[in-house]
Design goal:
By secondary structure, the protein is an alpha/beta fold. It is 32% helix and 25% strand. The chain has 18 helices and 27 strands. The strands form six sheets. It has a seven-stranded mixed sheet, with helices on both faces. The chain has a seven-stranded antiparallel sheet with strand order 20-21-24-25-26-19-27. Strand 10, helix 8 and strand 11 form a beta-alpha-beta unit. Helix 2 packs across helix 3, helix 7 packs across helix 13 and helix 10 runs parallel beside helix 11. The radius of gyration is 23 Å and the shape is globular. It starts with 9 loop residues before the first strand and ends with a strand. The structure holds 1,6-di-O-phosphono-alpha-D-glucopyranose (G16). 1,6-di-O-phosphono-alpha-D-glucopyranose (G16) binds next to loops.
Length: 551
């Protein structure tokens, strides 16, 4: 145990509030250079501690995805946690912890809360993005009432408390003293790997890999999941070295964009569409909570992935007893709704943001949940979990001994196919984007009962949600237009961007007839995309001819 002494001075540093510290869909995300301003990070952290406290005598979990500024921020937060009276801080080795691993540690070690340093899938590096998010004692993101209270506190803050102390060495697991606080440097993978052991039949998956007949490639995108994937996939499951691509976490993610989709996971996609493609391709994002699943020349939409996992859950030991219910965010396709109906279990529709699943999971109302934005998770944690989703797929593949595409096509044949696509218009002028949404909102009453593309509009509203567990109410969560044949268009502004505004348009069309399941989504959704543009005047209002990213 190293000991920089118990009597280190605590400084109370005068500061002035910043007005822009309102957490978005998932914490506070800004450009790195904003976080580098004097007092910026400190103000927000103090606002968190003031809001969630008293913190004296409590345990805090701390870690991040290793992006640029992670190392600096971790040391500042350790000193502030000590000055504010936390009894113990569990920090990942080198300041690294994936988002699901933070959730896991909070729950397993019964911590009071945790801080995740990440801007998720947003690019890193000095010109990139940084972020900070607070998770509560259930291991999940702080609910909206808490994030709003943090925001209010950030606008009135006048000082923060920090210990004067040198940086702690975080390169090896071990225990240190920082003033009165115990800082435990933990291996980032251990607790998480133990939890995966409890949920999955890892021996069956190991047998799947044995003999080299089954091959996979996992792209860690030079982000946080590298060490997790090396240990679990190549270590525990015996997949050959080289299964994990880009496995070393780098502060700028190797210059890449750590977003697991067909646009940014280029090398992985090339492998899966190339000669001798592996049987499974998968990727995770910056902080390890997202996942993408691919078969040879086959992309599984996140919405379909959730539905397939729900339909096959009882094949996996951790879920063999069945599901209590499922949940999806509103813009996510309704594929999982059909599985829930067949199983006779409830299906909840929540606003975008993992925090909205927390109460449902805590109350035992749902076991699995997911989002179109490449997030899937379950009641094992209170965050979405990228590698968990990959292990779930592997477990299903090990039991069914069929290919990814075959499993999904059989699923469509049984439940029908939900053609689905999301079109993102990034970096728009914020005022213009808000004007577009406002104009749509004004049109809603007139849209109801109107005909679009020859079908009647069955529903046109601005999504609002009342949490069935605690009654909390949220409004303005996205405009949805539902047509009589089940087709749906949803419009929202993203709550995670750091530059201008991102307009997301979600398109979905249901096709029950297996003879028509072979279309390309672009083809199947072309008419709906044209309608979406006509209704909102996207091209005219944004000056954009086409979306920047299609997923
Ligand atoms: C976060 C949230 C997700 C949300 C996603 C996109 O994910 O946790 O619930 O679906 O952002 O949100 P938006 O559409 O507002 O940009 P992550 O992986 O970025 O933390």
């Amino acid at each position: 145990m190293s000991d920089p002494g118990d009597s280190l001075p605590i400084r109370t540093v005068p500061t002035r509030p910043f007005q822009d510290q309102r957490p978005g869909t998932s914490g506070l995300r800004k450009k790195v250079r904003l976080f580098q301003q004097p007092h910026y990070l400190e103000n927000f952290v103090q606002a968190v501690f003031d809001t969630v406290g008293p913190v004296q005598g409590r345990t805090l979990v701390l870690g991040g995805d290793g992006r640029y500024h992670n190392d600096v921020a971790v040391q500042v937060i350790l000193r502030m946690a000590a000055a504010n009276g936390f009894a113990r801080v569990l920090v990942g080795r080198d300041g690294l912890l994936s988002t699901p691993a933070v959730s896991c540690l909070i729950r397993r070690r019964k911590a009071f809360g945790g801080i995740v340093l990440s801007a998720s899938h947003n690019p890193g590096g000095p010109e990139g993005d940084f972020g900070i998010k607070y998770n509560v004692a259930n291991g999940g993101p702080a609910p909206e009432a808490v994030t709003e209270a943090i925001y209010r506190r950030s606008r009135e803050i006048r000082s923060y408390r920090i210990l004067e102390a040198p940086d702690l060495p975080l390169g090896e697991p071990g225990v240190h003293r920082l003033g009165e606080t115990t800082v435990e440097v933990v291996d980032p993978v251990d607790d998480y790997a133990a939890l995966m052991e409890e949920l999955f039949d890892l021996d069956a998956i190991r047998a799947l890999f044995a003999g080299g007949r089954f091959r996979m490639v996992y792209d860690a995108m030079h982000a946080v999941t590298g060490p997790y994937a090396h240990r679990i996939l190549e270590g525990r499951l015996g997949a050959p070295p080289g299964t994990v691509l880009h496995g070393r976490p780098l502060p700028d993610f190797g210059g890449g964009h750590p977003d697991p989709n067909l646009t940014y996971a280029r090398e992985l996609v090339a492998r899966l569409w190339g000669e001798e493609a592996p049987d499974l391709g998968a990727a995770s994002d910056g902080d390890g909570d997202r996942n993408m699943i691919l078969g040879p020349r086959f992309f599984v939409t996140p919405s379909d992935s959730l539905a397939v996992l729900a339909a096959n859950a009882t094949l996996v030991p951790g879920y063999a007893r069945g599901l209590s219910g499922v949940a999806r965010s509103m813009p996510t396709s309704r594929a999982v709704d059909r599985v829930a109906a067949a199983l006779g279990i409830p299906c909840y529709e929540t606003p975008t943001g993992w925090k909205f699943f927390g109460n449902l999971l805590d109350a035992g109302r749902v076991t699995l949940c997911g989002e179109e934005s490449f997030g899937t998770g379950s009641d094992h944690l209170r965050e979405k979990d990228g590698l968990w989703a990959v292990l779930f797929w592997l477990n299903v593949l090990a039991v069914r001994r069929q290919g990814v595409a075959e499993i999904v096509r059989e699923h469509w044949a049984r439940y029908g196919r939900h053609y689905y696509s999301r079109h993102d218009y990034e970096g728009l002028d914020r005022e213009r984007a808000e004007a577009l949404m406002e104009a749509l909102r004004k049109r809603l009453p007139a849209l109801r009962g109107e005909r679009l593309g020859g079908r009647e509009v069955e529903l046109a509203d601005d999504f609002a949600y009342t949490d069935p567990v605690d009654g909390s109410h949220t409004e303005g969560q996205g405009i949805r237009i539902l047509l009589e044949d089940g087709a749906r268009i949803v419009y929202r502004l993203s709550g995670t961007g750091t530059e201008g505004a991102t307009l997301r348009v979600y398109l979905e069309r249901y096709e029950p007839d297996p003879a028509r399941h072979g279309l390309e989504p672009r083809e199947a959704l072309a008419e709906l995309a044209a309608l979406a543009d006509a209704v909102a005047g996207i091209r005219e209002r944004t000056g954009r001819e086409r979306p920047d990213v299609v997923t």
